[in-house]
Amino acid sequence: MDRMPKWADVVLIPLISLILAAILSALVILGIGEDPVAAVKMMVSGALGSTYGWGYTLYYATNFMFTGLAVAVAFHARLFNIGGEGQAMLGGLGVAIACLYVPWPHWTLALGGAAVLAALFGAAWAAIPAWLQAKRGSHIVITTIMFNFIASAVLNYVLVNVMRPQGSMDPATARFSETVHLPTLHELLAPIGISFSKAAPANVSLLVAVAACVLVWLLIWRTRLGYEIRAYGHSETGALYAGISPVRITMIAMLISGGLAGCMAINNVMGEAERLVLNATEGAGFIGIAVALMGRSHPFGVFLSAILFGFLYQGGAELALWTSIPRELIVVIQALVILFTGALDNMVRMPLEKLFLSLRKGRA
Amino acid sequence: MTDDQAGGRQAPAAPAIELRGISKAFGPVQANKDISIRVMPGTIHGIIGENGAGKSTLMSILYGFYKADEGEIFINGRKTEIPDSQAAIAAGIGMVFQHFKLVENFTVLENIILGAEDGGLLRPSLSKARKVLSELAVEYELNVDPESRIDQIGVGMQQRVEILKALYRQADILILDEPTGVLTPAEADQLFRILDRLRAEGKTILLITHKLREIMEITDTVSVMRRGEMTATVKTADTSPEELAELMVGRKVLLRVDKVPARPGQTVLEVDNLRVRDPKGVERVKGIDLTVRGGEILGIAGVAGNGQSELLEVLGGMRPGHGQIRLNGTPLALEGPGSDGRARRAAGIAHVPEDRQREGLIMEFHAWENVAFGYHRDPAYQSGPLMNNAALLRDTQAKMQKFDVRPPDPSLAAKNFSGGNQQKIVVAREIERNPNLLLVGQPTRGVDIGAIEFIHKQIVALRDQGAAILLVSVELDEILSLSDRIAVMFDGRIMGERLPGETDERELGLLMAGVSGEAA
Questions:
Q1: How many Cα atoms sit within 13 Å of A173 on the Cβ side?
Q2: What keywords does the record list, in alphabetical order (chain B) (predicted)?
Q3: Which of A195, A293, B92, B185 has CA 20 to 30 A from B165's CA?
Q4: Yes or no, beta carbons of B387 and A224 under 8 Å apart
Q5: Which of A229, A241, A244 to mutate to test the interface with B (most CBs of B within 10 A)?
């Protein structure tokens, strides 16, 4: 017998966690002498009150969908891929190479080509820790973290020494050509008569991210490979018994995971900056962990929590801009949400399970 | 049955243990329903019941792990609250768990004082314990070297340490949970002698077991549990194994397996000089030769941990080995490509693994997902690039019906079935493939009597269709009643082969303990 109904596990627990995080955040804001109600209003209006706000919220959410899916896929194979950040950085390199050195005739082809290269670069970056885990037993959490630092150093080197245009003082690539410009939501929605903010960076990558959610759902829950990944994730000895190769599943799951993280670059590098700059990922790889945890590693959950974190990011930025609440406090609020939805999951879960058990007994 | 039948000695003042109306529910599951028993001091009281009948829950309530929803506990006539195990120990109750709770790299003495130290310094506690231990050794013939490390003594000795731990804490009431599960018959006999001695010294013993033979051999009174209720309490002398089995299951059961003599055909499996090392490099199987023919069951007897598991795992493609195995004359790879479970299944080897929860099933998967486990590459389960869930569901429904899996709900997760029904799902999946060779490990471990009977019948039916069957079990009864030939393993080697009609538990027990056939 399950301890509680599924809806409680999927909806109620994240909701209560969120409320707890919100209450604690409110107390912190009160503690520094600001008005939490005004702060919430500011966040909501800043992130959701205009198409400009929505444009940023969805732009961030697109990043988080890719990195959240990356963590979720690996997590189904019980692999904790902390390396989304580094894989997304390498994905950026892939996008930059695709956009700078290939004369694409049209943005659609460029998007396809850049996505493939981004995924390949991200997957390749995940492949080394995956191989070390599968063959040598090196713990993937440790190796993927280390690979984040290596990725950062590699990008630093490449941007300063290889891809920086001559004469530029900025460690970044040249601007991509107009033909690989991805349509923003403003450009996509204008033909059907919806006016969307011109300044917001949300772009067609959002649709790719949503498609990725659907594809990952199909992969995990409907294909044989997904079946094997989940079986391996639940029981390694079980997988051995069933003739599922742990090495193969570890490699494949990590390659898919790295590929998804790499794909984030079509949003931030190709869609927004239109050139590759240093630290283009801005921590989205790490947020992906929280997104996957909160989304229960389910693609639809990842979709929803990515939007939530997009809201927190954009709302937080507005808060820092218009109030005296310091930028650091925004990070505190985001950290509280991560803490409650991810790490302190059991704190909410256990009392709730007890509650449902006693409710059920009352009925019996 | 009335209470005053318990005991049987001259009416002592108060029962050592009395439970009145104990009830305990876990959510919708009523694990214990209005249970009352009285156990007189200086007696051995057996509690018998199928898996999930509520024996362990009842004992956990008595030992303070769970709190009863209703009911009262009286120890030596005094009403006692037992909120935790400290309180149980204070009330004089000691528990010997099925899985020992010993620190492997501590000595016997250190384990005994663990949690019962007097003060921060160890030396006074240790010397006190040493003295008490030597007294206990004389009193109960419980001889154990106090300075040996736990990982260097045998399982039977480890169990004595558990008993000593309880006695050191001045337990007058001992609860033993399935104490003979890991023992050889000889070790079990020794344990029973110790229990006898303890009873003679006035200790009260609660023995939880599913083995009818043990109940008949050692207990004074026995209570039978079924589905959370205590269905009967009888004097052991007044009952019979058949009656107890019927009380446990609620209907007549066949204790012996009904089967016609085997008609062995062609040799199906040949194993030559098989050697297996575990990941640490320790040799677990040290050169085994055996053959199994079609239409016969070869039973491998042995105490757990003597290489039988590794033998099954190599044959099932779960770990590499060295030597030669041939199936119907064709050599099978023992390491590298073609040696995994997938290749084994393709060759027609089905495998009911020893541990259904860690190997045979994915506990979080639905029953319909588990019915494909290992065979999930079968084209019948695919439709294009996706899994054909509708086909899986149909297949599961058919198998559940044929194997009487309850509840017959394909979308229930494996963990929500009882042990017996989980095993039926595994057995259905493997047997329905009509394999050339069926590997079976501990087919009825943690399975209720009703399901045991059913699973045994299915295995015999597969044999009669001409399949070769290799059975590994630590239950001698099971080996003796199912096998057409018996091989005994000890320390990675086969000590000898016997025919079930021409041997007995005593002879097999000696072989299991490593005494070779010639010497016996």
A1: 25
A2: ATP-binding, Nucleotide-binding
A3: B185
A4: yes
A5: A241
Judge whether B165 is closer than 8 Å to chain A, CB to CB: no
Q: How far is CA B92 from the centre of its chain?
A: 28
B97 in reach of chain A (CB within 8 A): no
User: Is B1-92+210-249 in CATH node 2.40.37.10?
Assistant: no
The domain spans of chain B are 1-92+210-249, 267-512
Tracing tokens 């961030």 back to the chain, one arrives at A60
In whole angstroms, give the CA distance from residue A25 to residue A335.
10
Q: What is the mean pLDDT of each run of 10 residues along chain A (364 residues)?
A: 70 85 89 88 92 96 98 97 97 97 95 98 98 95 97 96 92 94 94 91 97 98 96 96 96 98 97 94 92 91 94 89 80 82 78 80 58
Alpha-helix residue ranges (DSSP H) falling in B95-146: 108-113, 122-140
Taking an 8 Å cut-off on Cβ atoms, the answer to whether A245 and B358 are in contact is no
ipTM: 0.86
Partner A contacted by B352 (CB < 8 A): no
- Inter-chain contact B387–A1, Cβ cutoff 8 Å? no
Which CATH entry fits the domain spanning B267-512: 2.60.40.10, 3.40.50.300, 3.30.300.30, 1.10.3720.10? 3.40.50.300
| Of residues A223, A234, A241, nearest to B341 (C-beta) | A241
Domains B1-92+210-249 and B267-512 share a fold: yes
Q: Is A3 on the interface with B (CB under 8 A)?
A: yes
Residues A323 and A39 sit within 8 Å (Cβ to Cβ): yes
**Hey, are the CB atoms on B373 and A234 less than 8 Å from each other?**
no
